[in-house]
Specification:
This is Cyathostomin immunodiagnostic antigen. It comes from Cylicostephanus calicatus. With about 90 residues, this protein is an all-alpha fold. It has one domain. The chain contains six helices and no strands. α1 runs antiparallel to α2 and α3 crosses α4.
Length: about 90
């Protein structure tokens, strides 16, 4: 899971390094995919992640409400308008 998303992130960062608008558009498309995958984690998966990445999982837990709000915001954004006006 971690390797998959790190690869996606770094590939996107390299591909769109000179185009902030395209980078932002891709981020808004990746975040819902990531959150959908995370929501499907089993308790065993979470336990494994907590053991391997204690600081990251603690940050997720400490900010769970904010992450959920951000996820809902990103899901609700109109993709066409967002691509043309990232500050909207």
């Amino acid at each position: 899971f971690i390797a998959k998303w790190e690869k996606a992130w770094f590939t996107m960062a390299q591909q769109y390094s000179g185009n902030k608008q395209a980078f932002f558009k891709q981020m808004t498309e990746l975040i819902p995919q990531l959150m959908e995958e995370v929501q499907g984690f089993s308790p065993e998966t979470w336990k494994s992640l907590e053991e391997q990445f204690p600081e990251q999982t603690a940050a997720w837990k400490d900010n769970e409400d904010l992450l959920k709000q951000f996820y809902e915001l990103v899901k609700s954004l109109p993709k066409q308008d967002l691509a043309q006006n990232p500050e909207a």
